[in-house]
Amino acid sequence: MSYGPIDFIALEFKTDQLTGESLPALLELVEKNIVRVIDLVIILKDQAGEYQVLEIEELAPNTLAIFDPLNVEISGIIQVEDIELIAEHMEANTTAALLLIENLWAINFAEAVTRSSGKMVMFDRIPFEVVNEMLETFAKAEA
């Protein structure tokens, strides 16, 4: 079985402003077999800067029900060091979601490259904030 590239994503939300809007967008990607969530860890950081880590299997039943449709596989790839690094940089009163997402869309392409004796020599993801900022800068320069 071939796997697609896996992305480690850490998202931070102001706890008192969580809307849940991003979850249906992720669920849509899962349902369309574009991505697969292979690990999910939640970090809650309070006003005092103390944090609590909740792995998906530790969530309360009502909270777990929210994430159930994602069919998260617990891979254990997200390590304590990853969690500590993110928690250290989180602001107070925030909630972070650490996800490992397999890019299912890339599997067939990667296999075709391999069959053609090709190999990836570089892969870099540019965050959407950077792309939007660059395009905004270009648009202002053209105006």
Verbal overview:
With 143 residues, this protein is of the alpha+beta class. Helix content is 36%, strand content 24%. A 4-stranded antiparallel β-sheet has the order 1-4-2-3, with helices on both faces. A hairpin with a 5-residue loop joins β2 and β3 (51-55). The longest helix is centred in the C-terminal third of the chain and has 15 residues, at 128-142. It is globular and about 55 Å long. The model has no long low-confidence stretch (mean pLDDT 90).
**N-to-C span:** 50 Å
Helical proportion, percent range? 25-40%
Instruction: Flag low-confidence runs.
Output: none
Beta-strand content bin: 15-25%
CA-based gyration radius: 18 Å
Mean pLDDT: 90
Strand runs, count: 4
Q: Determine the oligomeric state from the structure.
A: single chain
- How do the SSEs run, as a string of H and E? EHEEHHEHH
Number of helical regions: 5
* Structural class assignment: alpha+beta
